[in-house]
Amino acid sequence: MKITLLHLALAILSTLPSAFCLNSCPQCGNLSVPYPLSTNPNCGNPNYQLYCNNGALEFKSVGGIYYKVLSINRTSNRIVISPPPVDPGSCLSSDLMEGGLQIDQTSPFNISNRNTVLLFNCSKTLLLSPLNCSSNSVCRKFEAIDGGIKCRNKRCCSFLKDSPSNSRRIRVRVGACTAYTSVVDINETEDPSSWTFGIELQWMTPA
Ligand SMILES: *[C@@H]1O[C@H](CO)[C@@H](O)[C@H](O)[C@H]1NC(C)=O
Ligand SMILES: *[C@@H]1O[C@H](CO)[C@@H](O)[C@H](O)[C@H]1NC(C)=O
Ligand SMILES: *[C@@H]1O[C@H](CO)[C@@H](O)[C@H](O)[C@H]1NC(C)=O
Ligand SMILES: *[C@@H]1O[C@H](CO)[C@@H](O)[C@H](O)[C@H]1NC(C)=O
Ligand SMILES: *[C@@H]1O[C@H](CO)[C@@H](O)[C@H](O)[C@H]1NC(C)=O
Ligand SMILES: *[C@@H]1O[C@H](CO)[C@@H](O)[C@H](O)[C@H]1NC(C)=O
């Protein structure tokens, strides 16, 4: 009897870690990929699809644009993706033609409310919106650093991404604003060089 119970206990204990390992995907580059995130059909949950391309973990938008995953927090169910590069010779985000970042409405990922979005080269009509386009908007601080060189001295605006109605989209377009970046959990009084540039997404726990 004792032996049977012991064997049972050992059997249960030994299956737990292996079942867990089967479900989570292999590391991609230097990032581990916790469940439910999935980089191939044999691991993770297919609804949480990411891509491991040449050792770089990437998130794909509805528009088919890949954004590099910079970090993953498995405790808070969050990933931070890289804002799209701004063409060095202009003030145009590389995803401008797709209208910016757009996440499928049925995706378990949405844009968290810890992002402050900075918009550049905005048209005059944007001043009427609830965005902060004033001369002391935090977007002016970004202009001072290298990344914004071609966006300098154009109208820029900022806003905290906390509207539930639009949590799957950061919009740019010709005639409105043509470039953007995002800062996670911004501290406006700190120097921009210490900001975390990225777009934080959070995922819903699988049912
Ligand atoms: C992971 O690798 C990238 C370059 O491939 C590097 O920029 C980054 O600092 C590395 N992160 C860690 C936590 O080692
Ligand atoms: C991950 O998220 C948890 C919960 O919000 C937080 O306590 C922790 O500091 C985060 N880890 C990192 C590395 O940011
Ligand atoms: C600013 O936006 C306009 C269209 O809204 C575009 O024609 C122009 O090229 C942009 N400026 C830069 C420097 O990219
Ligand atoms: C814009 O942001 C700056 C810096 O945070 C703040 O001082 C100012 O009051 C804001 N203006 C508006 C109109 O929200
Ligand atoms: C923002 O940064 C300043 C200067 O480093 C610091 O004194 C302050 O506590 C920070 N604020 C928050 C909310 O972390
Ligand atoms: C975004 O996703 C998180 C996690 O699933 C959820 O708690 C939050 O309500 C969602 N936000 C919106 C605006 O739908």
UniProtKB/TrEMBL annotation:
Domain Wall-associated receptor kinase galacturonan-binding, residue spans: 25-81
Signal peptide (UniProt feature, chain positions): 1-21
Membrane topology of the entry: Single-pass membrane protein
Keyword vocabulary terms for this entry: Signal
Taxonomic source organism: Asparagus officinalis (Garden asparagus)
Molecular function terms, GO-annotated: polysaccharide binding
Protein location: Membrane
Entry keyword Signal: yes
InterPro entries: WAK_GUB
GO cellular component: membrane
Main localization category: membrane
Name of the protein described by the UniProt record: Wall-associated receptor kinase galacturonan-binding domain-containing protein
Pfam families named among the record's database cross-references: GUB_WAK_bind (PF13947)
